[in-house]
Write a structure and sequence with these properties.
Layout lengths: L1 H35 L4 H22 L1 H6 L5 H10 L2 E6 L2 E9 L12 H13 L4 H9 L14 H4 L11 H14 L24 E2 L5 H8 L3 H9 L7 H4 L3 H7 L4 E2 L4 E10 L2 E10 L4 E8 L1
Parallel strand pairs: 3-4
Antiparallel strand pairs: 1-2, 2-5, 5-6, 6-7
Helix pairs in contact: 1-2, 1-4, 6-8, 9-10
């Protein structure tokens, strides 16, 4: 028990030091920008935002605490890092910044619904939420690419001929899909789905779900279970090391095998919200701790 308290105290200390390093580094970077650029406010804000992203990325690359969380079999350290340093608000040089760290593998990537078994499991989940099979057909159509013979399972591209159809690229893209289903079938049942905690968007069809961070909504898909059962399993996040530690029933175990999962995916989802007067910027990207590499950068200014 004492050892556990010591580990928690050390984790908390590391978190405090991590926040201090971020604040000092970004503050120094912004000071250089403010001294050098005061020509056009909007251009300056865009430049400042890019400097902040570069500073955050550099801190992640050089932080020994972050690197430690990416060590083999270090799921406990990764969970500690995200739990303790997951939300960091601070202000520097008049700019308000909120940094959020979370697991980039806590949710289901629709692009991984690429097997017969995973598609059927997803249909069952949607049916349990009173959403009919046509929705899954529409969703799969929007990830099936351009078909010369127009052999889609729905009419979504008749009304949206320029809709991107290689994969679900963003929340806004998904909203277009959802709006079409709702209007086409006069069905409001999609309100039963917590899409924000269900989907993660990427073109990568090989991503795994980290079971130590999976949301309760994702557990409902993985196991085909009730909301209460999914919430119970999600509450023990961070403590899973193998299949036995999940204490699943035989049916749940067979269902879980349909999806690609793991117990350790050291990839962070980094969100940065930046505010200066009326200017706003939101930046998200993934950070691979082991390879010290950022990817999938999305800027909204």
């Amino acid at each position: 028990m004492q050892s556990k308290r010591q580990r928690n105290a050390i984790a908390l200390l590391i978190t405090v030091l991590f926040v201090i390093v971020i604040s000092v580094a970004i503050g120094f970077g912004l000071k250089q920008v403010n001294n050098a650029s005061q020509v056009l406010k909007d251009e300056s804000f865009i430049y400042q935002s890019s400097i902040i992203v570069e500073d955050v990325l550099n801190i992640l690359k050089t932080s020994p605490d972050v690197a430690r969380a990416g060590d083999a079999n270090a799921s406990e350290e990764l969970f500690m890092l995200i739990s303790q340093a997951g939300f960091i608000p601070f202000e520097s040089s008049g700019i308000e910044i909120v940094l959020e760290l979370s697991s980039a593998r806590a949710k289901l990537n629709p692009a991984t619904l690429n097997t017969t078994q995973s598609k059927e499991a997803f249909r069952e989940y949607m049916n349990l939420n009173m959403v009919n099979n046509q929705y899954t057909d529409i969703l799969l159509d929007t990830m099936s690419g351009v078909k010369a013979d127009n052999s889609y399972n729905s009419a979504i591209f008749d009304e949206n001929p320029y809709l991107f159809r290689d994969y679900i690229a963003s929340q806004k893209h998904l909203e277009q899909v959802n709006d079409f289903y709702t209007k086409e079938y006069n069905d409001n049942s999609l309100k039963n789905i917590d899409f924000e905690n269900l989907f993660y968007f990427s073109a990568d069809t090989n991503t795994s779900i980290d079971l130590n961070f999976a949301t309760s909504e994702v557990w409902r898909v993985l196991l085909g279970t009730t909301k209460e059962r999914a919430e119970y399993i999600a509450q023990n996040a961070g403590s899973y090391s193998d299949l036995d530690s999940l204490s699943l029933s035989d049916d749940e175990y067979e269902r879980l095998k349909v999806f690609k999962t793991s117990f350790f995916e050291p990839i962070l989802l980094v969100k940065i919200a930046i505010k200066e007067d009326k200017s706003r910027a939101h930046v998200t990207f993934e950070y691979d701790i082991k390879n010290k590499k950022g990817s999938n950068f999305v800027y909204e200014i």
